[in-house]
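On clarity, I found the account of how folds are encoded harder to follow than it need be. Since the whole study asks how a given chain folds, the encoding of that fold should be made plain. The format is easy to grasp once an entry is in front of the reader. For illustration, here is how one protein appears when written out as sequence plus structure tokens.
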Amino acid sequence: MKCSVASAGINVAVNFMLIPEYGMVGAAIGTAVSFSSIEVLMTLRAWRKQNMHPFTSMYRRLTFIVILMVGSMLAAKNAHLLTGALWEYATFIVGYFLIVHRAKILNSAEMKMICEIQKNFRYRISLRIPESLKTLAL
């Protein structure tokens, strides 16, 4: 409750500062800041009271990889190497999964889950491909 009250106070203060000058955008920024502040406050409280934190080594590595990938994707976009949102998203997703797989960040249970998803996806696609096309591919 203390974190919620603090977040509400932050929301009111930021809104009073930003809404007169920026209007609706200022209100959106104030709300985003207050939502972020409650998450930070709750995480700090859990860390202080229960010695719990979400910042495992796997989480830190994944965050580092995502930051590097977003930076590289923005650089590629600014250099006009990528044109079109579909290619950008596809490149990001494929690159992300390749890097995560190569870095061996995921544990065995998560890898099993991904393998099951792949099997299920391949099975569903094979049901939709006509038998004549399958024989042509061989």
Summary: Residues 6 and 38 are 8 Å apart (CA to CA). The mean pLDDT is 80. Residues 24-50 form the longest helix (27 residues).
